Amino acid sequence: MNQAAKNLLRVAGVVAGLGAAAWALRDRMLPSPEVHEEPPPKFRSGGGADDLTLIKGIGPVYRDRLTASGIHSFSDLVSATPEHIADAAGTSVSIAQGWVQSAQSQP
């Protein structure tokens, strides 16, 4: 084996050794990950809008119908009459009353 090949193998060995040392010491070189104890924030799509789909029986279709009629939050749902909610969502008044009761218990 000629001298150039030996030098190339030495350099490769040194680079591999440095890589192995860096890999072995990676926990000491990198900061430990931050652990947050509080839950992540809930992002809302608009100001004052709540996720109406958290109420049992309201899915994306009913949510879109209610939003189109001006009901964007739980407080909007509570302040509206069950007749208005039923008309806006295209459902019965008894179901709308159940939604109002569920919205009252939401935070």
List keywords for this structure.
107 residues, mainly alpha, DNA polymerase, domain 1, 2 domains, 6 helices
Topology:
Layout: H1 3-24, H2 26-29, H3 60-68, H4 74-79, H5 82-89, H6 93-104
Structural summary, described in words:
The chain is mostly helical and 107 residues long. It folds into two domains: 1-31; 52-104, 5' to 3' exonuclease, C-terminal subdomain (DNA polymerase, domain 1, Orthogonal Bundle), CATH 1.10.150. Helices cover 57% and strands 0% of the residues. The protein has six helices and no strands. It has helices spanning 3-24, 26-29, 60-68, 74-79, 82-89, 93-104. The model has no long low-confidence stretch (mean pLDDT 87).
The main β sheet shows up as: none
CATH domain class of the largest domain: Mainly Alpha
H/E element sequence: HHHHHH
Gyration radius (Cα, Å) is: 31 Å
Quote the CATH topology of the largest domain.
DNA polymerase, domain 1
Global mean pLDDT: 87
**Helix coverage percent:** 55-70%
Uncertain segments are none
Number of strands: 0
Main structural class: mainly alpha
The CATH architecture assignment of the largest domain turns out to be Orthogonal Bundle
The proportion of strand residues reads under 5%
- CATH-assigned homologous superfamily of the largest domain: 5' to 3' exonuclease, C-terminal subdomain
